[in-house]
User: Which sequence fits this backbone?
């Protein structure tokens, strides 16, 4: 067994404990619920006259579920030492999870209906780690009293980072508010493309399932007729213009819906408040002590009209995850100068947003081109194979060839984006072309370094240095930086960490 | 940016994986290659009438790739995979074609997790995963002798217990 001899003089309190035996009644039911689909499938199969075997199958699957449920009781045990909480579980994959006690952020006690019938509860110990899959310790099936005890036992220590709120009047400072003139940036956000996708989806369903003949509609009919009478280039131009126009309108509408009445303000109690939305209003509160930095993001089109938006990097706020999506927005697409200004005000230091960046040199630039070139070449060869073997038209090949110069342009722009800097207390990194992002991360928020080196990077003497952090994207990369510079950046940002691992 | 004469670089971590890890990596890869064999076997039996040549060509390609992978990868991994835990930091080096070094300060470690999968149990090995508050930064040390892994978990847990703060 994977038992770590954590404390030598283990007293009675530190013995391995089990879940409540009443869980023997609950776990099998939960397992059966998980197996409900195979069971239903078997029963349905039985009904449709497959013979008497189906019953045995159902019994077998049900039996397996019950056995797994029983096993979960016998294979799960936990103990609480003065330093940590440990959970052992698993039969084939035996694992021991150890959580140091002073890393425990939250202890949740929940119980669903089945739990309540048997007087049980589930205790979830959260470490504040944002990784959902493996989040802390879950003890499903303690007696309610034991759960309550455990809750008290674990939170006995004063929790770090939880101070009682001072009861003084809170004052509010407005940092930014939407100006109607910013709506001109709406068309360049391309959010309307999503709307077009949805409309096309609805349209195709109408045609396929509702048997609506679009060509019977007068307007559509007339348009198609009109286009047929134009020369091909003109027709293509017209369609492109129509799509672009519609995207612009839909994007603008989306911008107004999402960001109308946008306000970013700072409360003296140490929080940032974001309010926005026309029909659905949304309020987001970010504790400043959880703020780890900001991200200035410039999608290509927005960059062309000197616009940018600002996102927060904060623990507990992950970028682009389901319901949390958009929760980290600090400024909607607006003038770049305003974005830089607001980002600087939020972190209380304008320098990281404006400081000139250290470039990554010719080898990093060359890698942008070889990568773009390799990608396009592979695609061109695939298309060529289709043309030669499957009789695809030649224009498909020439379209693919046109990717080469486009890829080169993209590579040029990507190379121009690459850069990084270290200012007093801030790590700055920039990359990207279709979306150019400038990350500004507090150096004391860096909780580790990943240095990745592919075969080609090793030959070019380049490293991708990723600063890991508890918030936002979880890791912020500095792409293709020369090896020595990567070490210099990491050493400067986190003193006394790398020294012990340096070569003589 | 000027390149100074004394180029500072990281040395590799001190400790290697257990030599049994060679067999573990080979076995793990072998499982994958056997799984890949299944559709080929199915194809052999379903397509019973046609020429056997395409089957033999695909089979030969499978054999060459599998043999190369099984011969080269474990050796290469064994040379790359290294780990080290000091009083203040954990340092790992993993990969073979693409390599990665990870460094995390002990003061930011959240959990220390040891695991033994079925294949690992076969070779009396264990892996240790050290996680920080970032989802991007778990340090996984594979192919440790079970005893070494237990000792490492105990040592790390003790060290993590000594540092304070919420590690974010």
Assistant:
């Amino acid at each position: 067994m994977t038992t770590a001899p954590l404390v030598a003089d283990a007293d009675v309190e530190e013995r391995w404990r089990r879940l409540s035996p009443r869980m023997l009644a609950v776990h099998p039911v939960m397992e059966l619920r998980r197996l409900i689909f195979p069971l239903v499938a078997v029963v349905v199969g039985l009904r449709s006259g497959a013979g008497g075997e189906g019953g045995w199958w159902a019994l077998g699957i049900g039996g397996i579920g019950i056995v797994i449920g029983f096993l979960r009781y016998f294979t799960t045990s936990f103990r609480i030492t003065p330093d940590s909480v440990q959970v052992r579980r698993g039969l084939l994959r035996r694992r021991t999870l150890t959580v140091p006690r002073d890393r425990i952020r939250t202890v949740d006690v929940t119980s669903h209906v089945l739990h309540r019938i048997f007087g049980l509860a589930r205790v979830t110990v959260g470490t504040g780690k944002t990784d959902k899959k493996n989040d802390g310790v879950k003890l499903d099936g303690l007696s309610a009293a034991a759960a309550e005890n455990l809750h008290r036992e674990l939170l006995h220590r004063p929790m770090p980072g939880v101070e009682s709120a001072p009861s003084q009047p809170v004052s509010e400072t407005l940092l930014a508010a939407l100006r109607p003139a910013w709506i001109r940036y709406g068309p360049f956000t391309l959010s309307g493309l999503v709307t077009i996708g949805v409309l096309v989806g609805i349209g195709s369903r109408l045609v396929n399932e509702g048997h609506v003949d679009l060509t019977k509609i007068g307007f559509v009919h007339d348009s198609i007729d009109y286009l047929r009478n134009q020369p091909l280039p003109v027709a293509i131009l017209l369609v492109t213009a129509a799509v672009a126009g519609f995207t612009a309108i839909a994007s603008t509408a989306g911008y107004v819906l999402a960001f109308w009445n946008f306000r970013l303000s700072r409360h003296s109690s140490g929080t940032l408040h974001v309010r926005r939305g026309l029909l659905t209003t949304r309020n987001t509160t970010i504790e400043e002590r959880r703020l780890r930095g900001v991200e200035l993001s410039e999608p290509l089109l927005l960059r062309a009209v000197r616009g940018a938006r600002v996102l927060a990097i904060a623990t507990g706020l992950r970028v682009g995850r389901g319901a949390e999506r958009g929760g980290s927005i600090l400024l909607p697409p607006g003038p770049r100068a305003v974005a830089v200004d607001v980002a600087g005000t939020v972190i209380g230091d304008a320098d990281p947003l404006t400081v000139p960046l250290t470039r990554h040199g010719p080898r990093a630039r060359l890698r942008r081109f070889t990568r773009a070139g390799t990608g396009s070449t592979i695609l061109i060869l695939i298309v060529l194979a289709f043309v030669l073997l499957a009789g695809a038209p030649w224009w498909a090949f020439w379209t693919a060839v046109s990717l080469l110069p486009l890829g080169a342009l993209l590579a040029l722009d990507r190379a121009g984006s690459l850069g990084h800097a270290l200012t007093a207390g801030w790590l700055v990194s920039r990359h990207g072309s279709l979306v150019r992002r400038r990350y500004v991360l507090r150096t004391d928020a860096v909780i580790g370094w990943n240095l990745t080196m592919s075969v080609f990077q090793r030959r070019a003497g380049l490293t991708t240095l990723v600063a890991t952090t508890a918030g936002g994207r979880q890791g912020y990369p500095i792409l293709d930086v020369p090896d020595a510079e990567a070490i210099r950046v990491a050493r400067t940002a986190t003193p006394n960490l790398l020294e012990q691992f340096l070569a003589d | 940016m000027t390149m100074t004469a004394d180029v500072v670089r990281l040395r590799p971590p001190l400790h290697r994986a257990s030599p049994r890890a060679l067999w573990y990596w080979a076995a793990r890869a072998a499982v994958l290659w056997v799984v890949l064999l299944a559709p080929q076997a199915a194809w052999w039996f379903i397509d019973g009438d046609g020429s056997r040549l395409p089957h033999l060509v695909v089979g030969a390609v499978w054999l060459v790739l599998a043999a190369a992978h099984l011969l080269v990868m474990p050796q290469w991994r064994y040379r790359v995979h290294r780990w080290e835990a000091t009083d203040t930091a954990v340092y790992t080096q993993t990969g073979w074609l693409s390599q990665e070094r990870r460094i995390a300060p002990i003061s930011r470690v959240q959990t220390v997790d040891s695991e033994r999968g079925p294949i690992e149990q076969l070779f009396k090995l264990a892996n240790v995963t050290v996680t920080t508050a970032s989802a991007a930064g778990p340090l996984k040390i594979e192919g440790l002798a079970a005893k070494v892994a237990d000792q490492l978990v105990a040592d790390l847990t003790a060290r993590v217990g000594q540092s304070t703060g919420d590690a974010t």
Chain B touches chain A through 58 residues (CB under 8 Å).
